[in-house]
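Hi support team,

I've been running sequence recovery on a batch of backbones for a student project. Most finish fine, but this one hangs at about 90% for roughly twenty minutes before it completes. I'm not sure whether the input is malformed or the queue is just slow. I've pasted the structure tokens below so you can try to reproduce it. Let me know if you need the job ID as well.

Thanks,
M.K.
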């Protein structure tokens, strides 16, 4: 049944990407008077996310049924390694090959106005890859029909959502959701704003993307190492131990952003600066993956096979939401927390966009006296350590709950 969901979804995704390769340039605008079609792009991303989420549920369910209960924690290793490879191919590699400056500097003898690949070429290529690999899975991966697994309790979409609602109301699941939704507040400024601040301080985004290249082997090896500690009965211990170190990197990143303008020169940044950035990100990745693999292993461990991938995807969705909403809030709060003064024009302020325009019209300029990023960094770290001290032990105790606390209950 997992394959019957996965194969059609993969085919639709592949065909959708091939179709989008013919439309993406029009949707993004030509930059010559015609802007991007925001509504169409929103619909496109919604369809992408919907199809990817359906695929994700099928893959999660397959992991739960293919792996034994003793080894189900290794599903997080497969997940994280796959996501790392996908992020590298779809983000780092694409940004490098699409960048004219990178291609002209490192890959070409004669400069050209565009990169080696375009977004439309990239979408067409991976759409074709989706179709080919899906065909191979459909033909070569056989379901084991001799074994009769426990009958699943889901019968349709309505039945599934009713069951999900009953799962959310279970005390153990509700406690987990509330805790994981607040656990990542302390990392929001470091994760969401640091990269943008480095670009704002003059670090080329292509160079930041290239720094992710040496990270790929580390990101593939880390889950394999961490899974030795998270595949057991208490994966959340790793999450709890790694959390304070990841919080401290929030302060280290703030210092890195503060240090960046002092080492910049006309030719860019010295080599030792990029080495420091690379080491900072590498050590940060150790703490990040320790927490990520631990949560994924815990979700796989407690998920009830009767609802399979839907249960685990529910927990993973809540975990992802726990990281996304603080990042959104952190991005939104940077400007309100930033203090600016109007230099060169008396009786003017820069408190609002309109005030900043009046300051500029009066011959002044807005000067930042306190960057909201640094305020956020300190506040987030303090909130993170407060969560670690007060709620962290309670979060760890969830793994001591019996399996019956996580079992689905039906009343029909």
């Amino acid at each position: 049944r997992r394959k019957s969901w996965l194969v059609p979804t993969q085919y639709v995704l592949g065909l959708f990407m091939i179709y989008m390769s013919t439309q993406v340039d029009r949707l993004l605008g030509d930059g010559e008077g015609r802007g991007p079609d925001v509504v169409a792009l929103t619909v496109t991303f919604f369809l992408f996310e919907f199809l990817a989420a359906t695929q994700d549920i099928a893959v999660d369910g397959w992991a739960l049924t293919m792996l034994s209960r003793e080894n189900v924690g290794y599903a997080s290793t497969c997940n994280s390694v796959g996501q790392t490879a996908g992020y590298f191919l779809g983000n780092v590699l694409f940004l490098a090959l699409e960048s004219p400056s990178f291609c002209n500097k490192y890959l070409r003898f004669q400069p050209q106005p565009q990169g080696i690949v375009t977004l439309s070429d990239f979408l067409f290529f991976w759409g074709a890859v989706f179709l080919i690999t899906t065909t191979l899975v459909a033909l070569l991966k056989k379901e084991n029909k001799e074994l009769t697994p426990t009958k699943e309790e889901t019968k349709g979409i309505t039945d599934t959502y009713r069951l999900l609602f009953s799962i959310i109301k279970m005390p153990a699941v509700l406690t987990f959701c509330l805790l994981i939704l607040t656990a990542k507040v302390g990392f929001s400024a470091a994760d969401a704003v640091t990269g943008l601040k480095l670009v704002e301080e003059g670090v080329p985004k292509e160079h930041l993307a290239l720094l992710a290249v040496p990270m790929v082997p580390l990101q593939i090896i880390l889950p394999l190492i961490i899974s030795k500690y998270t595949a057991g009965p208490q994966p959340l211990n790793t999450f709890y131990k790694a959390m304070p170190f990841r919080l401290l990197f929030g302060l280290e990143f703030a210092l890195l952003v503060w240090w960046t303008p002092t080492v910049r020169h006309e030719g860019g940044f010295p080599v030792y600066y990029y080495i420091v950035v690379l080491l900072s990100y590498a050590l940060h990745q150790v703490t990040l993956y320790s927490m990520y693999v631990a949560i994924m292993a815990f979700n796989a461990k407690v998920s009830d096979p009767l609802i399979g991938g839907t249960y685990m995807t529910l927990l993973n969705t809540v975990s992802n939401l726990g990281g996304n909403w603080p990042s959104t809030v952190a991005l939104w709060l940077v400007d309100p927390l930033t203090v600016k003064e109007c230099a060169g024009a008396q009786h003017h302020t820069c408190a609002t966009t309109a005030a900043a325009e009046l300051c500029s019209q009066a011959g002044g300029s807005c000067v930042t006296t306190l960057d909201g990023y640094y305020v956020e960094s300190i506040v987030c770290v303090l909130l993170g350590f407060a969560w670690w001290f007060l709620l962290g032990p309670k979060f760890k105790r969830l793994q001591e709950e019996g399996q019956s606390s996580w079992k689905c209950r039906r009343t029909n």
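--
Follow-up from support: It reproduced on our side and the slowdown came from queue contention, not your input. The chain has two domains: 1-146, 173-399. No action needed from you.
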